[in-house]
Amino acid sequence: MLDRLAVHELIHRWWFAFDEGQFDVWPELLTEDVHITSRSDTGSSPYEEFIASDNRGREQVIAWQRQHREAASYPLRHNASNIHIERVDGDDISVVSYMYATNITDGQVTPIAGGVVRCVVRSDGAAYRLAELHIVLDTHAVAFTERQV
User: Fold this and answer.
1) Which CB contacts under 8 angstroms, 24+ apart, belong to 90-93?
2) pTM
């Protein structure tokens, strides 16, 4: 039986553990075959080299994520909102949400990124884990009718 609260909590826990650098927690949140990608919507943002990733397998994902987190400032706050389940296919639960990240600049909370996150949460019977996490950060605006879906 699908536990929607546990799915939401996993996503929130991932972002909290990422921001706080709780590296020892990350393995229990990810499947062995996890696939994580990140990029900007254009693929050519000024910070594309810093954010672009395509990693598979828990070990490779954790190595890249750790390097990325250690290179970023603290405090860093990722917030997931409008989390909702798009479909369930066996043990795989497809979830989409918005993501909004902030840090501190000159003593003030400053927005640094926002975008759409699509993920697959998988149940192994004992726990829910992230099997996929695909992040596309917003960097430019277009007319709604010109958007690429």
Assistant:
1) 91/122, 91/123, 91/124, 92/120, 92/121, 92/122, 92/131, 93/2, 93/7, 93/120, 93/121, 93/122, 93/123, 93/128
2) 0.94
